[in-house]
């Protein structure tokens, strides 16, 4: 899947490509991996290892992927250990996913958040609304 967005700082249109490589969804910005999700699916859960830069331009792809698992009542475990950046829109998307997952009586757990990202969850108060496990 290809997409694009307008880079306001540089005044040009940027593009990205979404590919499936084995059990990993990779989004390339140009020729570099920018964001990836590696999924492991169990009987009652889906564990996603996230990496790269979670930019707002990718939030719809991410939400759609997570909500597909939520729709069938799966528990979600999201490992953020390889994430270098997370936009505020990703944080808001996690709250929306949390709301949907509660309707299915399932759980969302965020684990191994880098210190700088954990700090952002605390500053915004989202740490009180989401399960930030270890």
Care to give the gist of this entry?
The chain is an alpha/beta fold and 134 residues long.
Overview of the structural elements:
This protein is an alpha/beta fold. It has one domain (16-132): STAS domain (Transcription Regulator spoIIAA, 2-Layer Sandwich). Helices cover 28% and strands 45% of the residues. The protein has helices at 59-70, 88-103, 115-124; strands at 2-7, 12-21, 24-29, 32-41, 45-54, 75-86, 108-111, 131-132. An 8-stranded mixed β-sheet has the order 1-2-3-4-5-6-7-8, covered by helices on one side. A hairpin with a 4-residue loop joins strand 1 and strand 2 (12-21). The protein is globular and about 40 Å long. The model is unreliable at 1-14 (pLDDT under 50).
Strand neighbour order, sheet with most strands: 1-2-3-4-5-6-7-8
* CATH homologous superfamily caption: STAS domain
Largest sheet: 8 strands, mixed
Q: Unreliable runs, pLDDT <50, ≥5 residues?
A: 1-14
Can you name the CATH architecture? Answer: 2-Layer Sandwich
Number of separate domains: 1
- Average pLDDT across residues? 82
Alpha-carbon Rg, integer: 15 Å
Number of helices: 3
Topology as a string of helices (H) and strands (E): EEEEEHEHEHE
**Which strand-content bin applies to the residues?**
35-45%
The percentage helix is 25-40%
The name of the CATH topology is: Transcription Regulator spoIIAA
Structural shape: globular
CATH domain class name: Alpha Beta
- Termini separation comes to 33 Å
Instruction: Label the structural class.
Output: alpha/beta
How many β-strands, per DSSP? 8
List the helices and strands and how they pair.
Elements: E1 2-7, E2 12-21, E3 24-29, E4 32-41, E5 45-54, H1 59-70, E6 75-86, H2 88-103, E7 108-111, H3 115-124, E8 131-132
Parallel strand pairs: 5-6, 6-7, 7-8
Antiparallel strand pairs: 1-2, 2-3, 3-4, 4-5
Helix pairs in contact: 1-2
């Amino acid at each position: 899947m290809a997409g694009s967005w307008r880079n306001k700082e540089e005044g040009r249109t940027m593009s990205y490509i979404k590919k499936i490589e084995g059990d990993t969804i990779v989004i390339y910005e140009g020729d570099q991996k920018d964001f990836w999700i590696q999924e492991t699916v169990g009987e009652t859960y889906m564990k996603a290892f996230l990496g790269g830069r979670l930019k707002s331009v990718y939030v719809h792809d991410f939400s759609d992927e997570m909500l597909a698992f939520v729709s069938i009542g799966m528990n979600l475990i999201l490992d953020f250990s390889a994430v270098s950046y997370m936009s505020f829109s990703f944080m808001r998307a996690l709250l929306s996913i949390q709301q949907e997952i509660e309707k299915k009586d399932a759980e969302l757990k965020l684990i191994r958040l880098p210190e700088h990202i954990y700090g952002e969850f605390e500053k915004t108060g989202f740490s009180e609304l989401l399960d930030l496990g270890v």
